[in-house]
# Entry
Amino acid sequence: MRTFILQRLMQFIPVLILITMLVFSLLLAIPGDPVRALIGPGEALDASQIQVLRKEYHLDEPVLVQYGIWLANVVRGDLGRSNQTQRRVLAEVSFRALVTAQFGLVAWVLSVLIAVPAGILSAVYRGSRLDLLSTVISIGGVAIPGFWLGILLILLFGVRLGWLPTQGYVSLAESPVQWLRHMALPAFSLGVTGSALIMRQTRSALLEVLAQDYVRTARAKGLSGRAVVWVHALRNALLPVVTIMGLEIGRIFAGAVVIETLFSIPGMGRLMVESVFQRDFPVVQGCVLLMAVAVLFANFFTDIAYTLLDPRIKYD
Amino acid sequence: MSANGIRRTLSLAVTLAAGLVLSHGPAQAQEKPRTGGHLRVAWSQFPTSLDAVLGRAGGDAYYWRQIYDQLVDADESLQPAPSSSLAESWEVPNPKTLIFKLRKGVTFHDGTPFNAAAVKFNIERVLDPETKATPKAAFEVIESVTVVNEHTVRFNLKRPWGAALSMLADRGGAMNSPTAVKKGGKEYGFAPVGTGPFKVAEVVPGSHVRFVRYENYWRKDKQGTPLPYLDELTIKFIRDDTVLVSALRAGEIDLAYVPYNDAEAFQNDPKFNVRVFEGGGIAFLVTFNLAKPPMDNVNLRLAVSYAIDPEAINKAVDFNRAIVAKAGMWPVRSWVYDPSVPRPHYSLEKAHEYLKKGGKPDGFELDVVTWTNHQPAAEIVRAQLAKVGIKVNLHVFAVGPATEKFFGGREFPAFLTSWSRYPEPDWIGSLSYKSDGYYNAGKVPNAVMDKLLEDGASAYDIAKRKAIYRKVNEIVLGEAWYVPMLYGVSFAAAPKKVGGLETVFGWDAKMDLRLLWLRQ
# Structure
């Protein structure tokens, strides 16, 4: 097991290098002069000023050299400074990542808390009105875009009722109550749409398990319904569900961009999109690196979770 | 009644009458601005820097304007405003020399005194290539700066600089504290120190910037109350228009520019005041590459310009809130605005006339480039040009690549785009009309234009400059180089409790929050 963990962690490094190299090349391949993109339309710089900027950001060097410079700095822990704002990338990205992580986590927890019980109930009371309701809601959830749901929630709870703030972010340290109030709508918009998938997966996995022989045996032995479901069926059903939950993390990162833009949350998703538009390479690379690390770890922990759930699964 | 009685009655009557008149007078005029309070403003861009000199995006001004004073401040029409400037007065003893007499008793937020040495430091900082200052190009005309005495500074110019006062009302004229710049190093950009009414209290990246009042601010209002009125000011970064409007309605923010489709609702809402700034930018224009066929033919360019109906575009795309452009690239509310210059307008008849003159009576094919925001308007233009037989091939890109393909790559004969408000004529002149300007796509040598621009840039007298730039527009509009179709309109909406709203627009149509106050 230990060798397995070590092997997996070692595999991170080539994967990270590959990902960052790919993103870097894509960024430079985007049509248009990066320096012009940095300056933005309207502000006028003369040719000599542009040359100075080009040299400073090594934009006149070949792609591999630029990447090499970046990598050499990263290894020393220096992610560089934003081309746009001159702020340190590490500080900027980690602050934003923390914000995204917070509301991503709340979204994810909400998602799971809604989906798994709903899925269990649907499976256990299959065919009932409860099942039908769950199905309708879950299909609706997959179809409804989080952005649209978010706007509706803002209009209802923010403008009409005035119960919750329509935008912004307050840190947990500053005020836990305000933090929760500001998190509520964005986390809900982001989490609900993903919960549908988890719910369907839970339902079908559990149904499959409940049809198994050993479940019938357990029932024949006289075990209560609840014991059957919780002790025997659920753990086995959870394997595919855990996979989906792990993938959710990736989806939440992706969906976070839109929700962050809508609710004006200073998160990493939005930072990344804006930096791509501005060709702010150091920031984009910093974000990509962090996200890649996060996703790699998420997958890794998912795999570990399997071993905890099912002792038959061993890695050697 | 006795004589005394009559006199007394009369004086009583007059007093009563006067009282009645006064009590029905406009309450606003007597209203005294209240000090204190925290104003929350929303804006759709986060600053690239809070330092006026280092920032690169137009939207930065919303933030840095509140913490700096300009060496020469300007009013809405870009006329100099000495009462809010750091220079009390100035003179031009000869065309290559400017002398500024500085205001006394002004200090930076960190206590450093503002004086001639500080001005010298700031200008030299802009000119220093190491700084990579955004306004450097415009300030190159300054040869050197001399400190005459503590409160008098002299600019020695390489050539006459008619645009001097306008440029000093912009980024390059914002005065930074020399002490703070030297101490701040690379981190200075987000912790700048100016002399302005507010100082930076907190920056949360991607979220907001919070300012607090600078207690030792030099300026007072007409009644002698020290400015600013507000204790605190927060500018929140809200990208999405729907959210911005919702936040305004929900009372989470107190001031924002609202989009066209929401403007009417706010104007009809008794809970809100709306101020309108016409000419907030050039909302839609067509420009041509004069060297690229078929747009190297002036008659065909005119044909295209006459075939476009801006009113239709205004109705379809801008909810009829923009205004049809009647002049050139210097929009309404600037001293250089001049609608008397003949220019293309919507006329199918004239379009056909110029098509014939251009040798293409049945029309021709035209490649047009535009960017994503303008795609709907561009499609309308395509339909309009089709009516006179001009077949448009539309190429749509993101704003950066589109701009660069047209001006840098010079790949297309025509560009449909928008432009920020630049009321200083030499700014657009030297970049867009001059033969070698970056924003002159064709770069066709034109000695007449270059001479006019040089004269305009060297003249100090506004009337003289206006006459020169009128001649410039005669060429630009008469030969269809840049033909604006619509001028943008900015709508600033705030709940009734926000006072001083009539001062909210700067000369660049961006927010000036320095004189605002809260009613409760």
Chain B touches chain A through 48 residues (CB under 8 Å). Residues 17-28 of chain B have pLDDT under 50 and may be disordered. The longest helix of chain B spans residues 3-23.
